[in-house]
Structures are given as structure tokens and as C-alpha cells.
Design brief:
alpha/beta, YbaK protein, two-stranded antiparallel ribbon, 10 strands, 30% strand, globular
């Protein structure tokens, strides 16, 4: 069960959370609709490569990563979307594209868009295309220790 590793980590750290089961969905907006959650409150994980190194960008499902901004705040020469082939083996316990934003469990740096820090709670994929976990944003930040920056945009030709 993909959610096992994450649930164990949350339980060990005494974090209160709920599991939301929803109809199978593959896009962040589809998940939000299926789970009846606002796209602003659903956090999506986008895999990036900054100067060839994999990292996670976490932002509201209703927004996209501005790659130029991401390059600027990470002091990278190049930031690009990572292909599934480049990251799928990094998450052996997750369905491809449903990895939770806990890069610390997978040896990855995590960047969170500032807009998520204003949410009392966030929900995110829990390793499958059928389940979300919802918890307090403060607990997420405490456990993951992400770098916080402004890199999300509503739309852009250079966004993901």
C-alpha cells in the first residue's frame, strides 16, 4: 500500500491527519474535483531538475511553476521539468505522479511556494491516485523543512 511509509512517518511524529479516498484521478485539478477540495488548497508536487539535480516543487494545484523564477531563487543555471523516466525509480512505493511532497523521505530537496504557507491545512497525494492526506500546514513545514519562495504563477508558456 503506497501510503504506508508516509503514514508511519506521520504517526511517529505524532501528526494529526486524515486520509481522503476519492475516485481515480491523474491530474491535480481532477483530484481536487474528485475529492471536493479547492485547487487552491490541494498541494501538488512537481518534479524539477535544477542543474541536473532532482528536487520537488510544491504549490497549489491551481497554479503552475514559473521555471525562470525557480532558477532565480535556487541560483541555478537551468531549471526544467523532470521526466517520469528520470524520477519514477526514486519513489518505489508510489504510483508514478502521485508522490507526496515529503522529499525528505526520498533524499530530495523541497521548495514550497509562499502561497501555500497561508493555508491552515493542505491536502496532497499520498502515493496513489486514489488517496489524499490532509494535515495542518505547520506540521508539514515542521517535518519537511522546505525552502519557501515565490515561484508559482497562474499561467505562463514556461510553466508546469
Amino acid at each position: 500500500m503506497p501510503i504506508q511509509k508516509l503514514r508511519q512517518f506521520l504517526d511517529e511524529n505524532q501528526v494529526k491527519y486524515i486520509v481522503i479516498t476519492h475516485s481515480k484521478a491523474y491530474t491535480s485539478q481532477g483530484v481536487a474535483a474528485s475529492a471536493h477540495i479547492s485547487g487552491n488548497e490541494l498541494a501538488k508536487t512537481v518534479m524539477l531538475k535544477k542543474d541536473g539535480e532532482l528536487c520537488m516543487a510544491v504549490l497549489p494545484a491551481s497554479r503552475q511553476v514559473d521555471l525562470a523564477k525557480a532558477a532565480q531563487f535556487t541560483n541555478s543555471r537551468e531549471v526544467a521539468l523532470a521526466s517520469e523516466r528520470e524520477f519514477k525509480d526514486r519513489f518505489p512505493d508510489c504510483e508514478v505522479g502521485a508522490m507526496p511532497p515529503f522529499g525528505n523521505l526520498y533524499g530530495l530537496r523541497v521548495y514550497v511556494d509562499t502561497s501555500l504557507t497561508r493555508d491552515k491545512e493542505i491536502a496532497f497525494n499520498a502515493g496513489s491516485h486514489l488517496e489524499l492526506i490532509q494535515l495542518a500546514y505547520n506540521d508539514f513545514e515542521r517535518l519537511v523543512e522546505p525552502t519557501i519562495a515565490d515561484f508559482a504563477t497562474r499561467s505562463s508558456s514556461r510553466a508546469a
